[in-house]
Amino acid sequence: MDGDTQLLDDRQLTLPQRARRLLQSQQSRRWLAAGAVLLFVLLATHFVMDRAAYVTTADARVASEMIAVSTDISGRITRVAVSEGDRVAEGDVLYTIDDREAEFTLAEYEAEAARLRAEIAREEARAGLSASKAGSQVAARQAGTRSASASVEAARSNLETAQQEHDRTKNLLDQGRIPKSTYDQAKNALETAQQALLRAQAERETAAAEQRTASITGEEVRLIDYDLTVLKAELEQAEARVEAQKVVVEQHTIRAPVGGVIDELFYDPGEHSLRGFRMALMHDPANVWITANIKETDIRNIHPGASVLVIADSNPGNTLKGHVTGIRETTLSEAAMMPNPNANGVFTKITQRIKVRIDLDSTVVHLRAGTMVRVRIRKSERSPAKT
Asked: Rounded to two decimals, what is the model's pTM?
């Protein structure tokens, strides 16, 4: 209806009026076209300037150090102390493994160490008593030897006196000045003195032998000391076994190596763990960074220290700031566990990607490991000066 009205109005216009209206319509179209061209030029200029100043990629994600918690022993799981998603502190218990056999072995080793300590105490007491006894015996035998030596000297002096008296009496008998009975008494005294000297010498030899016997008792004390040395060495071995077994007992309790979040648990109660196998996977949410895969054609414009703007897909309303802290020296394909060799002889050139690490500045935005982000890295011709 409006179109028909407009058509009737146009028919009622004069020719000059129709020309003016047509001219106004053409001018409006030209202004619209000019505005569109200007807007396109502005957008293109902004795009070109942005490309000239930044390296932009959406092939980036939040990364964290994923810690695989494993066990050094095998055994039956008796308790799972956490659940997936729980926050734990360093040292918190994650799993407990049946440790009864390990505890029994520890008790056996501790009993053996206690037995050796008792034997060492007994031998030390015996050594002390033997040393005291040997010392007393040696002192007594030394005194007996000195007494016997003095007796020998006294007997030798008596023998010399008896010999002189015998010789004098014999001379007087030869002169007929004394009776023979007097001479017989002197002779008997000489023989008695000779026997006394022999007896004293024998007693001195006996005392010397007893002194040597007492010295041998001292050697027995030395043998006890040797036995003590052997027992102490055995005790050190037993104590080492005890400490090693304590480590084994402690290994039956699996603890968190760092504070963080439990991402995955691989065992349930009652299952049998295997030595060296992963039991849990965890990470520290406070220690995250950005890993961006940059094209090899752009990597020459990126250097450590370059500023970065980050927009997380999980929180697009906040722009985070960071800086480049590391650039890999190999491409992702070179570091792949299963490289893709060109076996059919047909070569297709593919732009390679190089991993770049970006550390974030302080932020209150919560980022989850593995989530995607978009990054804009400011280009630089050379590496920024190190401060």
From this structure: 0.59
